[in-house]
Amino acid sequence: MKTMALDTALYLQFFIGLIAILNPFGLLPVFIGLTSHQSQIERAQTNATAMITVFLTLIIVLLVGQALLKMFGISIASFRIAGGGMLILIALSMLKGQMSDVRRNEDEVNESVTRESIAVVPLAIPLIAGPGAMTTAIVYSAEYPKWQHLVGFGCGIAAAALICWLVFRAAPLLSNFLGHTGINIITRIMGLIMMAMAVEFMSQGLKDIFPVLQS
Predict the structure, then answer these.
(1) 83-105: per-residue pLDDT in tens?
(2) Which candidate among 37, 104, 208, 209 keeps its CA 20 to 30 Å from the CA of 81?
(3) Euclidean distance between CA atoms 79 and 20, whole angstroms
């Protein structure tokens, strides 16, 4: 019973951290802007396609993350430090109410204008399921590789994708209700959570590399 409670807490931690990184509320203006030329039906289709892509991308990363680290000879400790550093960069931009260039660049945004569908690129990748979300999936899968944990993390990914879908589904209403200030406040809160995750990743990685720090 105690182990089950610990596992539930782990999956909840993963889910909350993932929601903070995906930050669907902060991406509301971006989603509305990218789909402004679409009808209501087309916008719903774009939303569904994007969330399916996000789910599949993160599930694949979750399943092959540990194998990728082994392939390149990267220890989980080193990846924790590197991933934590990247999350800090994203978190800092979120605390300023901005969108980090780590998640997107102008070329990707400009290129999307010429495409019929923006659901996969740049909306799903890299705006939603960007480097931060992928890093989180890899870290947790490498740290807890048992299939029971992978199933739990997979459920967390599914729940996070569902919440993103619901938020974007109600994008016009939520955007009008929250306003620019409300979205910025939520973005900063999510950035603070992400910053805490990044510090935790890096501190654990440093302790693994330098065991003396654990004393």
Answers:
(1) 889 889 888 888 887 665 555 55
(2) 104
(3) 20
